[in-house]
Amino acid sequence: MNQTNKHIKYGVMLNLYLAQSIPMSFFATVLPVIMRENHFSLTSIGLIQLIKLPWLLKFAWAPLVDTSQGRISSYKKWIFGSELFYALVIFSIAFFDLQTDFKLIVILLLLAFTASATQDIATDAFSYLILKKNERGTGGSTQTIGHFLGTVIGSGLLLIIYHYFGWNILIAALALFVLLALIPLWLYQPQQTYQTQKNIPKVKFSDLYRFFKQPYMKYRVAMLLLIYAAIIGILTMLKPWMVDLGYNIKQIGIYSGLIGPASGALFAYVAGKIIKHKGQKFMLKWLLYAFLIINLYFFLISRQTPSYILLQIGIIGIWGIYSMTTVFVYTFLMNSIRAGREGTDFTLQIVLAHIGSLFIAVLSGELAHVLGYSGLFLTGVAASLILLIIIPLLYKKSLQYEISG
Predict the structure, then answer these.
(1) What distance in Å separates the CA atoms of residue 284 and residue 32, rounded to the nearest whole number?
(2) Count of alpha carbons within 13 Å of 118, Cβ hemisphere only?
């Protein structure tokens, strides 16, 4: 494959991940701000978080997407179908009023996010199949860049557009963007990186259970549950800490909602290059030390009121490390994908990482309440030291059995 075709491949991937992440970011982060401006109750604003539920449950219908049994053309059909439905539902929301049709809009958003989650299952499988093994680092960084840039656009730029053009035009434009994102995929004719295997057993829902019965899978599961443990606490409590430091909503939005994710996109590109040239093991070793350094940094600056510059360095650092960890995770989980079950296996592992992060996020709030922010960050230091010992052992064990070549 020549260099031009390779760049087209990554461009198609980036476009698909942007198409799913921009509307998601807008509805999950900006919509609550708009609702508060329109004097919605905090209960209603909390209810809007239910729209994320399909992304935690998407593993349940991943085997349905895998009925294509490893055929790229079939995954493309799933992407087209779910993306078209995604765009249609988003477009329909433009015709309803947020004040008078709130419950209906929540139902429509649940449908939209279900379609988006389905598109993600198919897109992850599609991406895995078009990537050669030596391209997985760059592929993982492309996925991460798409998500982080989507956060920047969805939670920052679209809020500005909303204030100028209003709800109806913005929602219609979102739907149009999702449709336009299908054009590069329609034009792209990929070559499968391996021949579709014959006589692959038909995908069953019991494959969800069988995934965990594979040799050494317990080590991989433990690693995915723990990999974000040392940094999610900082990310979760960063905005509340900034509020307590006296920063206003606009400043927090710029620093933590725009500069942070934008830095993450840049660091994701770097991570892809590191994995490509140095390998996963080198990337993991660097990350484990980075976990320790960033927690120590936040602990030290939290002992007194940090200056703007010190805080900004910390924000860029934590988002950069978070994005590089995500690139590693995407690349790492590609090592254990069963033929014909690409969507199921990819999705299961991503959900495991999300579950681990969710648990730490909930726990961090209680730790910050009891120990204070400095105590929370010191706990992160201790977690980093533990991970320095545990994660390399789990990684070594997990590599004793790899499915993919």
Answers:
(1) 36
(2) 20
CA 241 to chain centre: 23
Domain assignment of residue 271, yes or no: yes
Amino acid at 25: S
> What amino acid is encoded at 55 in this protein?
W
Owning domain of residue 20: 1-190
Residue labelled with tokens 């038909």: 202
Domain boundary among 156, 190, 224: 190
- On whether residue 173 sits in a domain, the answer given is yes
**Are 267 and 291 in a shared domain?**
yes
Q: Are residues 149 and 210 in the same domain?
A: no
CA angle 124, 127, 128 (to 5 degrees): 85
Of 403, 405, 10, residue with least CA distance to 190: 10
pLDDT in tens, 176-225: 888 888 888 888 877 655 445 556 677 777 878 888 888 788 898 999 99
Q: Which of 145, 162, 190 is the last residue of a domain?
A: 190
pTM of the model: 0.86
Question: Could you report how far apart the first and last alpha carbons of the chain are, in Å?
Answer: 19
